[in-house]
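User: My advisor asked me to double-check a structure prediction for D-inositol 3-phosphate glycosyltransferase before group meeting. I don't want to rely on an old file, so could you generate it fresh from this sequence?
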Amino acid sequence: MTRPPHLLYLAWGFPPSRAGGVYRALATVNAFADAGWDVTVVTASRETFERYTGADASLEERVDPRVVVRRIGFDWPAQDTDIRRYSPLRVALPPVWARLRRLKDERTFPEPSYGPWRAPLAAAARAVHDDKPVDLTLATANPHVTFAAAHDLWRAAGVPYVMDYRDAWTLDVFSGRTTTSARSRVSRWQARLLADAREVWFVNRPLRDWHARHFPAVADRMVVVENGWDPALLPPVPPAVPHDGGLRFAYLGTVTPKVPLGELLAGWRAAMADGRLPAGSTLTLGGHLGYFAVPQGPLAEVLADAATDGVRYVGPVAKAQVADFYANADVLVLALGTGRYVTSGKVYEYVATKRPIVAVHDPANATTDVLADHPLVARIDAVTADEVARALAEGAALVDRQDEQTRATLDALADRLRRDRQLAPRVAALRPREDA
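Assistant: Sure, here is a fresh prediction for D-inositol 3-phosphate glycosyltransferase from the sequence you gave:
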């Protein structure tokens, strides 16, 4: 091959989106560009993120200038809050409108809200290929409609594709239950897409193994590509500076109803009340409340009620300000939903800060594996207020247990968990042969 290989990357959440997985998407396209690929991204318009989910404009500056980004429109009626645009049916009979809307959404692909995007996304992918032949398509989910568009290009032009699962489609990662029957449209689509994929990526071993058990014919093409932290996005975080007063605990991440916020705050209050934490200690939470641009009111109320207990919510933190957020913390709190298949992108950043970590999540959570070699982790045995209070006290004690050997261990762990270390083997393996 005399020309550089050409990667087509299909993603809904891409900078300036602040949605989950955007850092993985950003790092992936940059890694391929660094490896000498021509890279074209097809994603949603900026307005989509600004209007519906919230945006982080600083992320767009991090896209490698060699990467070509093509944006196409995306309509999301279900998230439209402007009632002036509502149809008479939606105003008069919202449940009926919602049912009919879902049927329309799933006409060409069984994914509510995203199904209609299949046609414009597939058309944009074909236009990219017609302009400059594509050697490989890499589609990331969710939404899973990106997989369908990659499959459409494979059928039309023979372009191989990789499916990057950041989550799961027919598996509830929290409960471990299968969400659809084997004969459902979703299950049939998933089987078809997996069967024709060149590779299928998963972010942790439990997710990969579950899919390998359910789709054994594809198991040899399923690989784990962990998340990681990005040196380009997270400059070195200096050691915590000694200061007067109590310890500064901090949590950074999207707060959803799955996060054990109630147990965390109850445990915090208990540890402060009985003196297990130094007087004057604070707990600062940063991040979006929910997945959409409008914060979830109940979560905001819970945090507001905790303000008198030394708890402070500072709102979303732009990626460019993340290092400063971590620098102002003595101990980091990692609060996650329960489930063996649950993973976290944030845990890798936490490791990179080399701060003590209080792991407020089910021990069976896949994130436990990431922290297995971390020497400064206070773990809980169960997601209860009592266990959280105990772990917070243990985390406070870890602040004074940072010797030279501990620092060396943390340096080695952080280096191993860099995102480029996770991506490099796959980028190399997917490069077309020179004699092709």
